[in-house]
Amino acid sequence: MGKNKKQLLLGNEAVARGLYEAGVELVSSYPGTPSTEITESAAKYDDIYCEWAPNEKVAAEVAFGACVGGARAFCGMKHVGLNVAADPLYTASYTGVNAGFVIGVADDPGMHSSQNEQDSRHHAIASKIAMLEPADSQECRDFTKLAFELSEQFDTPVLLRLTTRIAHSRSLVEVGEREKRELKDFPKNPDKYVMMPAMAQKRHIVVEERMLALRDWAESADINRVEMNDGAVIGVIAAGDCYQYAREALGDGANYLKLGMVNPLPIKLIKDFADKCEKVYVIEELDDIIETHCKANGISVIGKEIFSRLGEFSQATVRKSILESEKEYLSVDAEIPGRPPVLCAGCPHRGVFYTLKKLHCNVSGDIGCYTLGALAPLKSIDVSTCMGASVTSLHGMNKVRGDEFASKSVAVIGDSTFAHSGITGIIDIAYNKGISTVIVLDNSITGMTGHQQNPTTGYTIKGDPTAAVDLTALCKACGINRVRVFDPYDLSAAEKAIKEELAVNEPSVLISRRPCALLKQVKHNPPLKVDEEKCTGCTSCMKIGCPAISMKGEGKGRKAVIDFTQCVGCGVCSQMCKFGAICEGSGK
Predict the structure, then answer these.
(1) CB 84 within 8 A of CB 55
(2) 161-172 pLDDT, tens per residue?
(3) Structural domain tally of the chain?
(4) Does 330 score more than 50 pLDDT?
(5) Which residues of 341-351 are buried (b: 16+ CB within 10 A; e: fewer)?
(6) What is the 3-class SS of 64-112, one letter each residue?
(7) What global pTM score does this model have?
């Protein structure tokens, strides 16, 4: 591809393009919306070695090892994944780098697909690592390349922060050629890379000096730019998508300080900008990072007193907050019906959750598409916090509440999540003589983030065959003697297996094994249909919450109907019908 070519790219795709052009050799990540497409897109470049790691900590450590080994490296994750990677991240700040090392983190204001609205800028501040924040796809490509330059110039890992809107929005990107780079020598330098206390104390001095140097750089960096407009008296300080919202909402009616580096923040640049404006607003989603920095340095700004700490902003919310006027908004008079998330038709998890509800089980849940089992009508999950916590939380509850509670309590966790952080919980249960029952929902893929491979599937990110973790053998090796597999489409077998394992006074692992219904290689049965003469309208089939089943008609004429375009013939609903009204057929 020649120079100066333009492509319409997602922000995530543009980051991947930046990795390619920057000469990155290795990418190791764990999939997490809204960051997943960075690594999926990078894997399309044959010049970059890419892998899905079991979790974010492993990914960060692999990428760090590659950078110390002399090659530019990257790992990507979502905001909660950065918590998992925090251990290596904070120490890599002390060691510094050999070749460039960049960590991409995608925050999710509004919690479109997340369990919290954590602001990753706090990690940048606490770990004393530079953070860049692009505002469109072109900057995603440009800032990625810049991040590697800064990493090597200042001997530091660099965080690249995206948000959902930037990661998943498309805009034109001018692309270039790949930079060819030689592998750097491997450094024999324990004073720099071995973080024993004596060495770490010396490196902390280097870290503090580096942060001062980075702040000096931020004062005059092109990525922190001032935009003054004739006649405008108010100023706006913003970064990333908030800058875009402000520009679209206020246009040339305001002056702007667009920040590309959000840690460390400049001081003099902000003061000079504020001095030119009568009033300055700081627009930032989630926490008051920039606002607090301004006020700590004697700069008067307006921030969270008018802007929410909750959720995702928009052009409308920015305009309303600043101009206090709603009359110019675009509005839709029609009420748009809600579309709550639901397990897919034929989802293998549905039978498990139906059975758990039928048995009145207490359920410790985990993070994945199966978390939807908490919603009506299944309502089968009582607690869910973070990846892997289903197993360990159940162990804790059983230890304090005793055997009777344990005899009606289970943990549910997906196969990918089990490989991510569930294994250690199983070890904890076995080692500490727990009696917990854990159900691994093995659907042969990482479902929630879009069907990525994982260590249990037997395929790499590029689809090449590889070693697959044997969950049965693994659990037994961890000290669990009772491990059994069942088919979640068979409700009687599922109920029998769960009841029997709950009845024993020792730990057990049940593996619910059935591939995700959306996998291309899965062959489905013909769709089912409802025999209207046999259907009594009892609504028993509605208890599983399958989107392919609905009720039509009024009064005694109210009957169940199966949408043949959605039904995959799993047969779960037919097992629930006492009248034999659901039968095989085209459904048309």
Answers:
(1) yes
(2) 999 999 999 999
(3) 4
(4) no
(5) eebbbbbbbbb
(6) HHHHHCCCCEEEEEEHHHHHHCHHHHHHHHHHCCCCCEEEEEEECCCCC
(7) 0.88
